[in-house]
From TrEMBL:
GO terms for molecular function: phosphoglycolate phosphatase activity. One of its GO terms (cellular component) is cytosol. This is Haloacid dehalogenase. It comes from Paenibacillus oryzae. It comes from the Bacteria. The lineage of its organism: Bacteria, Bacillati, Bacillota, Bacilli, Bacillales.
Length: 226
């Protein structure tokens, strides 16, 4: 972790999957359900892709994710997969499945108490992203929860730019973009922000985080540098 010479943040923007939420703890039950239903409905005939393949796609827009997992799929199959993924994620969240990374809630509360504005910017579906925040008891800590599903943005760069504009935040190193994928680093750097890489997440490859300004090996490290 290296913050020498950098501004302490006035605001932090967090990715959701692989940053705040340990997504595999939810998808391990959702993933097989989605593909079983697609087969039952005649929209998919192959084997269920390994869960690791899905986890490696986290951070992508959903259409890109399904094209990667089901390269020969029809539009109808991909659209139905979107519906099933959201339905089953919300059902399993309601049932108590899925967990935050260690210390997430406590660290967010500490950052909030120190006067930082907190946001989420995710490429996921609106009701999923907000559902995680609500079911895990952290929704009230955020000044805004943004998702590609809600705003129809084509990249996280655009989503973060919209967030900054709507909350009248001037792009500066005093705003930190915190995430675990290349799309998070890109969104931070392209918008003139400090990019914080979550090296504790295992869904992507380490090379994706090249170019980040700060690396953290546990979420709780944020409290010690703000």
């Amino acid at each position: 972790m290296n913050i020498e010479g950098r501004n302490r943040p006035q605001a932090l923007i967090f990715d959701m999957d692989g940053t705040l939420f340990k997504t595999d703890t939810l998808l391990e039950v959702v993933h097989p359900r989605v593909f079983a239903t697609l087969r039952d409905e005649g929209l998919y005939t192959g084997e269920t892709p390994p869960l690791d393949h899905l986890l490696a796609c986290l951070g992508m827009l959903l259409d890109d994710l399904w094209r990667k997992l089901m390269p020969d799929s029809s539009l109808a199959a991909r659209e139905r997969a979107d519906e099933l993924l959201l339905q089953y994620e919300l059902e399993e969240l309601e049932a108590g499945h899925g967990s935050l990374y260690g210390g997430v809630e406590e660290t967010l509360r500490e950052l909030k108490a120190r006067g930082c504005k907190l946001f989420v910017a995710s490429n996921g579906l609106e009701h999923y992203v907000k559902g995680v925040a609500e079911h895990k008891g952290i929704a009230s800590l955020f000044d805004g929860i943004y998702s590609a599903g809600e705003y129809g943005t084509s990249s996280k760069v655009d989503l973060v730019a919209r967030l900054l504009n709507e909350h009248k935040l001037e792009p500066s190193p005093g705003i930190w973009m915190v995430g675990d994928r290349s799309s998070d680093v890109e969104a931070g750097k392209s918008n003139g922000l400090t990019a914080v890489a979550c090296a504790y997440a295992t869904y992507g490859k380490a090379a994706e985080l090249e170019g980040a300004d700060i690396f953290i090996s546990a979420f709780t490290e944020l409290a010690s540098v703000v």
